[in-house]
Design brief:
single chain; alpha/beta; Rossmann fold; four-stranded antiparallel β-sheet; 7 helices; globular
Length: 228
């Protein structure tokens, strides 16, 4: 079953009267439960591509279908609601809310969804326990290491029960131990709960864990390999 299907996806920027083709006519299908790394040199279009998949950026041309929804056709208010209920995000910079505890950061998405306090509490604690932070639920980000903050970010991404998770360079600011721990957690969630993960990355450790590797160059797919 395809979670994502894109056709002729293109993003062009006008930079001082020069057109920059960040993404050029990509055709791609991502199936449910895939653990996929999108790789390539800086400026190849990885982040732009992920941002379009997540509805954070609009394509210049082409179609994006997620499930039964044509995402590129949604109005801004519809797109916000669609992201809230279907897509989990993990960013390089963590993007946690500093004044909230780990548990409150995870609960925040569910609060926007209108979930009850009881449901929010239960799921937040369960997810934080799953990522190895059951004893740090009341800690604010400033009291957590970089690796722990990124694990909170993963728990937050999963809180809404999304169809898939987009992770943009999630290990870039982490040391080797934190990276291995984070990747093991995400791989476990992928295999046991069939959560679809799509990474943009320069990190060879992420690439080694991925079961599908898509290589971009100059905004185009030049290699798409599934591992045995």
């Amino acid at each position: 079953m395809n979670v994502i299907e894109v056709k002729k996806l293109t993003k062009t920027y006008n930079d001082s009267e020069v057109k920059v083709h960040a993404v050029q006519g990509i055709d791609l299908e991502i199936q449910e439960g895939e653990f996929t790394a999108i790789v390539g040199p800086s400026g190849c279009g990885k982040t732009t591509f992920l941002n379009m998949l997540g509805g954070l950026d609009q394509p210049t041309e082409g179609n994006i279908r997620i499930g039964d929804t044509m995402v590129h056709d949604l109005k801004p208010s519809e797109l916000i609601d669609f992201r809230l209920h279907n897509i989990g995000f993990v960013f390089q910079a963590y993007n946690l809310i500093p004044v909230l505890t780990a548990k409150e950061n995870v609960e925040f998405i569910m609060q926007l969804q209108g979930k009850s306090k009881e449901e929010r509490d239960k799921r937040a604690i369960s997810l934080l326990t799953e990522v190895g932070l059951g004893d740090r639920v009341d800690a604010r980000p400033s009291r957590l290491s970089g690796g722990q903050q990124q694990r909170v970010a993963v728990a937050r991404a999963l809180a809404s029960k999304p169809k898939f998770v987009l992770a943009d360079e999630p290990t870039a600011n982490l040391d080797s131990t934190s990276t291995e721990t984070l990747l093991d957690i995400m791989e476990k969630l992928n295999r046991e709960e069939n959560i679809t993960f799509i990474f943009s990355t320069h990190d060879a450790r992420v690439v080694n864990k991925a079961r599908r590797v898509i290589q971009l160059e100059d905004g185009k797919i030049i290699k798409d390999e599934r591992k045995a």
